[in-house]
């Protein structure tokens, strides 16, 4: 998920995705921001796919280049050969994670999550990203302060990563249970999983870090609610017959994996609603419900169809500046 925040100075933040783990449309989050004129950005952060897009946003000064890199990564994720080669005996997860590690590492290389003092602020302009004139500071990996959210299953706690290996914490924030094994934190060895299990829209984290205004971009998937009422008991044999019989009435019932997934996200629902209804948060949700979380191959379609329908209602705009007394 995504969000942008404003500190006590006239500058805002952008943390990012609810269950938008691998939803390729989360790149639409940054598109929404690029269409908001003259919003100064102080910080970027996010959860899951939002952590990935937020990292690109913090690193790239060019929106066009950011989109190109996101597209290349999405295309790499559609490789069936790489997916098959990463399959493993499913004790901890279906995939070993080695292939996914390489894809994330190829994007961010050995960059670190850190911004040196004195780094120039960057503003979001209409259709492009512009940075302030470069200040005389040494080369650095990110232009904006950045944080990623993960779920520490060793300590049963939320982790906010503001320093360390960029690709590792982005990967950890995107690690879905059952698909990818937890990532061992190189600092303390704790097991890190997808941040969406504990905080799917970390606007509150941005707020705690000094933000006064947060633009939160929600690109998470919506749960199916139109399910079959099967009563007090459910026979798997009956379900199997319904699925195999082309003449039978179709039923909508959650499988075991879907039940476990919904249970994992229950704790995030109230937190998301509280953030969405807060007075410091401007909530945006692009029209993405027709796309699945793994629709990486629909990158171009998403950019064209969804990108042409920006979700801009309620977006914070900088207050008008008073006229110069000398003018």
TrEMBL record:
GO terms for molecular function: phosphatidylcholine lysophospholipase activity. Gene3D superfamilies: Cytosolic phospholipase A2 catalytic domain. A motif (DGA/G) lies at residues 194-196. InterPro entries: Acyl_Trfase/lysoPLipase (IPR016035), NTE (IPR050301), PNPLA_dom (IPR002641). Residues 1-11 have a biased composition (Polar residues). GO terms for biological process: lipid catabolic process. Residues 16-26 have a biased composition (Basic residues). Residues 1-207 form the PNPLA domain. Residues 1-37 are annotated as: Disordered. The active site is at 48 (nucleophile), 194 (proton acceptor). GO terms for cellular component: endoplasmic reticulum. Residues 27-37 have a biased composition (Low complexity). Keywords: Hydrolase, Lipid degradation, Lipid metabolism. Pfam families: Patatin. A motif (GXSXG) lies at residues 46-50. This is Patatin-like phospholipase domain-containing protein 7. It comes from Pteropus alecto (Black flying fox).
